[in-house]
Amino acid sequence: MANIQWFPGHMAKARNQVQEKLKQVDLVLEIVDARVPEASRNPMMNQIVGQKPRIMVLNKKDLADPNKTAQWLAYYRAQGDEAIAIDAQHAKRLNQIPQLARQMMAAKIEKQKSRGIRNPSLRAMCIGIPNVGKSTVLNRLVKKNIAVVGNRPGVTKNQQWLKADDTLMLLDTPGILWPKFEDELVGEKLALTGAIADTVFQEDGVGLFGLTFFQRAYPAALKRAYHLNDEEMALTPADLMVVLSQKMGFGETFNRAAERLIFDARQGKLGAFTLEVPGDFDGHAE
Ligand SMILES: Nc1nc2c(ncn2[C@@H]2O[C@H](COP(=O)(O)OP(=O)(O)OP(=O)(O)O)[C@@H](O)[C@H]2O)c(=O)[nH]1
Known about the structure:
12 helices; elongated; binds guanosine-5'-triphosphate; nucleotide-binding; cytoplasm; P-loop_NTPase; GTP-binding
C-alpha cells in the first residue's frame, strides 16, 4: 500500500547493525504492540535474534484486548521465549523486566559468581519497530528521561548504554527495523493502530478495514460508540460507513468518516482491541 522504495536497503543495514551489537548482549527485549503483536515485528526478527534468549514485551497492554493478550503470552512462551505484557506509559516502575531477565539468565549469573565476579550484570538489547514504545520502556526502566520519546514513527536514532539497575544494562536499537508494511494487511493494521505515519496510507481503505474488523470482532463496542441499531449493524461495511458518515454530520463523504473512525479507534473510543490472534493473523478467530 505504501510507496516505500527504500525498504530493502535500509533493512539490510539495520539488520547488520543489530547483529553486530547482538554479540555484546546476553539477551534481547523485543518490544511489540500488544494490539498487533505479529504485525508490529520486523519480518526478519527471528532470524536476526537467532538463539539469543529473548523476552517478548507486549507493550500498550492498556489499549489491547486482555483475553487476546493472554493468548499471545501463552503463544510466545510455548515458542520458548519469555513474555510479559506491560503499559509502559502509565507504569511507575517496570521491575518485572529486570526480574524476568535475572530468572532467565540465572545459570549465567551463577557461573559469573563462581568465577569470583561479585556483582554480575546482564546486558540486554531493546529492539522493536518504530513507535511500539521502545523509548518509553527504556525511560521507565532507567527511571530517567534519557531516551527521546516521540509519537512520530522513526524517532529513535542514536544508540546508548543505559543502566536499569546494578544487574542490568540496556542497549537501545542501533538501527531502525521496519515492519512488513508492504504487505497490505500488515499495513492496514499498523495504520489503524497509529504505528505508521498518516502520510503513507489511504484513510478510506484503512477506515473500512477497521469498520469491517470491529463489526466482526467487537460488535458491541462499535454499536455503543456510534449508537447503532441492529439493522444498521447488519449492513455491509461500506453501507455502514455511509450511515456513520451521516451520523457524524459529514454527509456521504466516506473519507472523513473513515478518518474519524481511525482516530476514535486509536483514542480507545471503541474500547480495547487486538487485531490478530495466534494462528490467525486476520484476528477474526476467537
Ligand atoms: N497507551 C500507551 N501508549 C504508549 C505506551 N508506551 C508508549 N506509548 C506511546 O506510544 C508512542 C510511541 O512511543 P515511543 O516510546 O516514542 O516509541 P519508540 O518505539 O521509541 O518509537 P521510535 O522512536 O519511533 O522508534 C508515544 O506517544 C508514547 O507515549 C503504552 O504502554 N500505552
